């Protein structure tokens, strides 16, 4: 599920195969539905909905009902198929996750039976060391059962995995904004226009398992390789940090690394596969300007992060709750709860001494309706960071 809002204060809620509008007056109806859809995310811009579905990004004109393809043949069939989107000015940013855990196809890839020839595609040309893994001597950036040779050059694909694409909403041209980013679970922009993202670290699985990794928040820099699959959290994969019980570490897959050492994250979490939805209070509506909010899937809570202090718990969720996405909308933090299908808002009260949560929209997973507005006021600790 995902959501967005237009200039008329109407909300659009994306389900797997349809999008429903909930107008300001409470009227709700299906805007577009297609059984072939598999919607990952959605954004609104100039009376059009931009929809990431299956392996493409399309636009839907809300007046003419015309559908146009913006980007297609995206290689998102792997471990992290969900594509996130975010609009900044006249540009649409689109994330593409890695196909594998750490660059090598193996038995941990559950998609292998459906896509036997799939693998990680690099966005730029790389040179490999020629390492082999498992009984089939699997190489990196090649299909299952295919070996690498030392010095092998892999040419860049038109659209690579572990990337952010940037699509010009005016010219309709697109290019790679940044690469070497394993899988992005949340994306937003600061008041200065900088791009930040929650990124999942490598896991202890597959033919090239990585232990002791974590999730991160990165500032994503244009044109920069961010390290995947040979660096994580700014550290090389052969660092003692990632030693197993026998004192062994993984070797590099790449013979030559693009540019200098990749950038370090601005925040390192204490778990892997934990960080999810993410947004930035660029205006300082709820706290200091550029305070970050992120969802911890393991602890099931939303935290706030100011660069001057450690993360603070903002909302502790119930055991049956799960956050699909959250965004800053009109000076409010809007949160889409996935399991019950509830859209929450968190905003300051009138005297700005605290924040409160109002359950103002109820979205049934089966039937989408607008309930009468029932306020559930929860006093939340709000602290100004100094």
TrEMBL record:
Record's InterPro entries?
6-blade_b-propeller_TolB-like, Quinoprot_gluc/sorb_DH_b-prop
The UniProt keyword set, sorted, is: Membrane, Transmembrane, Transmembrane helix
Residues crossing the lipid bilayer are 361-381
For this entry, the protein name equals: Glucose/Sorbosone dehydrogenase domain-containing protein
């Amino acid at each position: 599920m995902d959501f967005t809002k237009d200039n008329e204060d109407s909300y659009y809620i994306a389900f797997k195969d349809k999008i429903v509008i909930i107008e300001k007056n409470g009227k709700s109806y299906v805007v577009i539905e297609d059984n072939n859809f598999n919607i990952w995310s959605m954004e609104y811009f100039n009376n059009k909905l931009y929809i990431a579905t299956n392996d493409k990004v399309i636009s839907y004109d809300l007046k003419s009902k015309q559908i146009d393809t913006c980007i297609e043949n995206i290689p998102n069939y792997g471990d992290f198929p969900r594509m996130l989107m975010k609009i900044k000015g006249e540009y649409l940013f689109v994330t593409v996750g890695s196909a594998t855990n750490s660059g090598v196809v193996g038995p941990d890839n559950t998609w292998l039976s459906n896509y036997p020839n799939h693998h990680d595609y690099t966005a730029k040309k790389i040179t490999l060391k020629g390492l082999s893994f498992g009984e089939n001597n699997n190489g990196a950036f090649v299909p299952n059962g295919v070996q690498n040779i030392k010095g092998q050059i892999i040419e860049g694909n038109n659209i690579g995995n572990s990337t952010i694409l940037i699509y010009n909403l005016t010219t309709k041209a697109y290019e790679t904004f940044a690469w070497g980013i394993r899988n992005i679970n949340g994306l937003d922009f600061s008041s200065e226009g900088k791009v930040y993202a929650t990124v999942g670290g490598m896991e202890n699985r597959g033919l090239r398992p990585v232990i002791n990794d974590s999730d991160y928040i990165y500032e994503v820099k244009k044109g920069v390789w961010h390290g995947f699959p040979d660096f994580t959290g700014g550290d090389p994969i052969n660092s003692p940090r990632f030693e197993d019980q026998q004192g062994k570490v993984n070797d590099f897959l790449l013979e030559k690394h693009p540019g200098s050492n990749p950038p370090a994250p601005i925040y390192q979490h204490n778990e892997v596969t934990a960080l999810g939805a993410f947004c930035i209070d660029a205006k300082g509506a709820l706290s200091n300007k550029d305070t970050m909010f992120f969802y911890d899937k393991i602890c099931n809570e939303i935290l706030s992060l100011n660069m001057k202090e450690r993360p603070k718990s903002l909302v502790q969720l119930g055991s049956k709750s799960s956050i699909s996405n959250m965004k800053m909308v009109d000076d409010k933090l809007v949160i889409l709860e996935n399991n019950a299908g509830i859209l929450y808002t968190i905003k300051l009260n009138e005297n700005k001494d605290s924040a409160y949560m109002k359950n103002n929209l109820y979205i049934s997973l089966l039937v989408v309706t607008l309930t009468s507005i029932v306020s559930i006021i929860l006093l939340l600790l709000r602290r100004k960071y100094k």
